Amino acid sequence: MADSVATHEGSFPATKERTTDLSGSLTEAGGGAAAIVLGVLGLVNVAPNMLVSVAAIVVGGCFLIYGGVVASRFARASAAGEVRRGVVGESLTMESLCGATGIILGVLALVGEDPAILVPVAAIVFGGGLLAASGTSARLNAATASPEREHHSEALSLVLGPSFLIGLTGIVLGILALAAIHPIVLSLVAMLTFGVSFMLTTSSFASMA
Fold first, then answer.
1. How far apart are CA 128 and CA 130, in angstroms?
2. Model pTM score
Protein backbone atom coordinates (compact mmCIF):
# COMPACT_ATOMS: atom_id res chain seq x y z
CA MET A 1 0.00 0.00 0.00
CA ALA A 2 2.79 2.38 0.97
CA ASP A 3 4.66 1.59 -2.26
CA SER A 4 1.49 2.31 -4.22
CA VAL A 5 1.04 5.66 -2.54
CA ALA A 6 4.68 6.58 -3.09
CA THR A 7 4.45 5.68 -6.75
CA HIS A 8 1.25 7.68 -7.11
CA GLU A 9 2.80 10.70 -5.42
CA GLY A 10 5.95 10.37 -7.49
CA SER A 11 3.92 10.63 -10.65
CA PHE A 12 2.72 14.15 -9.79
CA PRO A 13 5.99 15.98 -10.72
CA ALA A 14 6.18 14.21 -14.09
CA THR A 15 2.53 14.98 -14.77
CA LYS A 16 3.05 18.62 -13.82
CA GLU A 17 6.09 18.89 -16.11
CA ARG A 18 4.17 17.38 -19.03
CA THR A 19 1.29 19.76 -18.38
CA THR A 20 3.73 22.68 -18.42
CA ASP A 21 5.22 21.42 -21.70
CA LEU A 22 1.75 21.11 -23.20
CA SER A 23 0.88 24.64 -22.08
CA GLY A 24 4.08 25.94 -23.66
CA SER A 25 3.36 24.06 -26.87
CA LEU A 26 -0.15 25.49 -27.07
CA THR A 27 1.23 28.99 -26.52
CA GLU A 28 3.74 28.32 -29.28
CA ALA A 29 0.90 27.20 -31.56
CA GLY A 30 -0.96 30.42 -30.78
CA GLY A 31 2.15 32.39 -31.72
CA GLY A 32 2.46 30.42 -34.95
CA ALA A 33 -1.18 31.16 -35.80
CA ALA A 34 -0.63 34.85 -35.03
CA ALA A 35 2.40 34.93 -37.34
CA ILE A 36 0.29 33.39 -40.11
CA VAL A 37 -2.48 35.96 -39.63
CA LEU A 38 0.00 38.85 -39.54
CA GLY A 39 1.71 37.55 -42.67
CA VAL A 40 -1.55 37.23 -44.58
CA LEU A 41 -2.74 40.68 -43.52
CA GLY A 42 0.58 42.21 -44.54
CA LEU A 43 0.47 40.45 -47.90
CA VAL A 44 -2.94 42.00 -48.62
CA ASN A 45 -1.35 45.39 -47.94
CA VAL A 46 -2.66 46.05 -44.41
CA ALA A 47 0.20 48.07 -42.82
CA PRO A 48 2.84 45.66 -44.17
CA ASN A 49 5.87 47.49 -42.74
CA MET A 50 4.43 47.42 -39.24
CA LEU A 51 3.00 43.90 -39.39
CA VAL A 52 6.19 42.33 -40.72
CA SER A 53 8.04 43.76 -37.71
CA VAL A 54 5.39 42.51 -35.29
CA ALA A 55 5.47 39.09 -36.97
CA ALA A 56 9.23 38.91 -36.44
CA ILE A 57 8.72 39.62 -32.73
CA VAL A 58 6.02 36.94 -32.51
CA VAL A 59 8.17 34.34 -34.27
CA GLY A 60 11.06 35.22 -31.96
CA GLY A 61 8.78 34.58 -29.00
CA CYS A 62 7.84 31.20 -30.49
CA PHE A 63 11.52 30.28 -30.64
CA LEU A 64 11.97 31.19 -26.98
CA ILE A 65 8.99 29.05 -25.96
CA TYR A 66 10.09 26.19 -28.20
CA GLY A 67 13.58 26.27 -26.68
CA GLY A 68 12.11 26.07 -23.19
CA VAL A 69 9.83 23.14 -24.05
CA VAL A 70 12.61 21.16 -25.74
CA ALA A 71 15.07 21.89 -22.92
CA SER A 72 12.48 20.68 -20.39
CA ARG A 73 12.06 17.41 -22.26
CA PHE A 74 15.83 17.03 -22.56
CA ALA A 75 16.21 17.63 -18.84
CA ARG A 76 13.78 14.81 -18.06
CA ALA A 77 15.46 12.52 -20.59
CA SER A 78 18.95 13.27 -19.25
CA ALA A 79 17.78 12.66 -15.67
CA ALA A 80 16.60 9.24 -16.83
CA GLY A 81 19.95 8.62 -18.52
CA GLU A 82 18.47 8.58 -22.01
CA VAL A 83 20.53 11.47 -23.42
CA ARG A 84 23.70 13.21 -22.36
CA ARG A 85 23.11 16.21 -20.12
CA GLY A 86 25.23 18.66 -22.10
CA VAL A 87 22.80 18.68 -25.02
CA VAL A 88 20.20 20.42 -22.84
CA GLY A 89 22.23 23.60 -22.62
CA GLU A 90 23.17 23.47 -26.30
CA SER A 91 19.52 23.16 -27.35
CA LEU A 92 18.24 25.89 -25.05
CA THR A 93 21.05 28.27 -26.02
CA MET A 94 20.50 27.91 -29.78
CA GLU A 95 16.73 28.36 -29.82
CA SER A 96 16.81 31.13 -27.20
CA LEU A 97 19.59 33.01 -28.99
CA CYS A 98 17.71 32.93 -32.29
CA GLY A 99 14.48 34.01 -30.59
CA ALA A 100 16.09 36.86 -28.67
CA THR A 101 17.95 38.09 -31.76
CA GLY A 102 14.77 38.06 -33.84
CA ILE A 103 12.83 39.92 -31.15
CA ILE A 104 15.49 42.63 -30.95
CA LEU A 105 15.56 43.03 -34.74
CA GLY A 106 11.75 43.14 -34.85
CA VAL A 107 11.55 45.78 -32.14
CA LEU A 108 14.18 47.92 -33.87
CA ALA A 109 12.25 47.65 -37.15
CA LEU A 110 9.02 48.51 -35.36
CA VAL A 111 10.39 51.69 -33.74
CA GLY A 112 11.60 53.17 -36.99
CA GLU A 113 14.71 51.38 -38.26
CA ASP A 114 14.56 49.96 -41.79
CA PRO A 115 12.35 46.81 -41.72
CA ALA A 116 13.47 46.00 -45.28
CA ILE A 117 16.92 45.25 -43.83
CA LEU A 118 16.29 44.11 -40.26
CA VAL A 119 13.42 41.67 -40.84
CA PRO A 120 15.21 39.80 -43.67
CA VAL A 121 18.16 39.41 -41.31
CA ALA A 122 15.73 38.05 -38.72
CA ALA A 123 14.38 35.62 -41.34
CA ILE A 124 17.90 34.30 -41.95
CA VAL A 125 18.46 33.92 -38.21
CA PHE A 126 15.13 32.15 -37.76
CA GLY A 127 15.87 29.87 -40.72
CA GLY A 128 19.17 28.82 -39.20
CA GLY A 129 17.49 28.34 -35.85
CA LEU A 130 14.83 26.13 -37.41
CA LEU A 131 17.48 23.97 -39.07
CA ALA A 132 19.18 23.49 -35.70
CA ALA A 133 15.85 22.91 -33.96
CA SER A 134 14.95 20.16 -36.44
CA GLY A 135 18.16 18.30 -35.62
CA THR A 136 17.68 18.77 -31.89
CA SER A 137 14.11 17.51 -32.01
CA ALA A 138 15.14 14.49 -34.08
CA ARG A 139 17.79 13.53 -31.51
CA LEU A 140 15.35 13.99 -28.65
CA ASN A 141 12.68 11.99 -30.41
CA ALA A 142 15.04 9.12 -31.17
CA ALA A 143 16.35 9.04 -27.61
CA THR A 144 13.04 9.14 -25.76
CA ALA A 145 10.64 7.22 -28.01
CA SER A 146 9.21 4.12 -26.35
CA PRO A 147 7.69 1.16 -28.26
CA GLU A 148 4.13 2.11 -27.34
CA ARG A 149 4.68 5.65 -28.65
CA GLU A 150 6.51 4.66 -31.81
CA HIS A 151 3.67 5.91 -34.02
CA HIS A 152 4.05 9.39 -32.47
CA SER A 153 7.78 9.17 -33.14
CA GLU A 154 7.14 8.41 -36.79
CA ALA A 155 4.64 11.27 -37.07
CA LEU A 156 7.12 13.73 -35.60
CA SER A 157 9.84 12.55 -37.97
CA LEU A 158 7.53 13.26 -40.91
CA VAL A 159 6.91 16.79 -39.60
CA LEU A 160 10.59 17.52 -39.02
CA GLY A 161 11.28 17.09 -42.76
CA PRO A 162 9.01 20.01 -43.74
CA SER A 163 10.38 22.05 -40.82
CA PHE A 164 13.91 21.58 -42.16
CA LEU A 165 12.77 22.67 -45.61
CA ILE A 166 10.98 25.69 -44.14
CA GLY A 167 14.22 26.65 -42.40
CA LEU A 168 16.08 26.53 -45.71
CA THR A 169 13.25 28.46 -47.38
CA GLY A 170 13.43 31.16 -44.71
CA ILE A 171 17.16 31.58 -45.27
CA VAL A 172 16.70 31.85 -49.05
CA LEU A 173 13.84 34.35 -48.69
CA GLY A 174 15.90 36.43 -46.27
CA ILE A 175 18.87 36.52 -48.64
CA LEU A 176 16.67 37.48 -51.58
CA ALA A 177 15.00 40.19 -49.49
CA LEU A 178 18.41 41.59 -48.51
CA ALA A 179 19.17 41.75 -52.23
CA ALA A 180 16.26 44.23 -52.47
CA ILE A 181 13.93 41.79 -54.25
CA HIS A 182 10.55 42.77 -52.78
CA PRO A 183 12.01 42.72 -49.24
CA ILE A 184 8.79 43.30 -47.29
CA VAL A 185 6.77 40.79 -49.32
CA LEU A 186 9.42 38.08 -49.03
CA SER A 187 9.86 38.77 -45.33
CA LEU A 188 6.11 38.43 -44.76
CA VAL A 189 6.13 35.12 -46.63
CA ALA A 190 9.04 33.94 -44.49
CA MET A 191 7.27 34.84 -41.22
CA LEU A 192 4.12 33.13 -42.45
CA THR A 193 6.01 29.92 -43.25
CA PHE A 194 7.72 29.97 -39.85
CA GLY A 195 4.28 30.22 -38.27
CA VAL A 196 3.16 27.14 -40.21
CA SER A 197 6.24 25.25 -39.05
CA PHE A 198 5.60 26.02 -35.39
CA MET A 199 2.00 24.89 -35.67
CA LEU A 200 3.08 21.60 -37.28
CA THR A 201 5.75 20.80 -34.69
CA THR A 202 3.50 21.86 -31.82
CA SER A 203 0.77 19.41 -32.81
CA SER A 204 3.29 16.56 -32.86
CA PHE A 205 4.90 17.50 -29.54
CA ALA A 206 1.47 17.83 -27.94
CA SER A 207 0.57 14.30 -29.03
CA MET A 208 3.72 13.00 -27.37
CA ALA A 209 3.24 14.90 -24.09
1. 5
2. 0.76
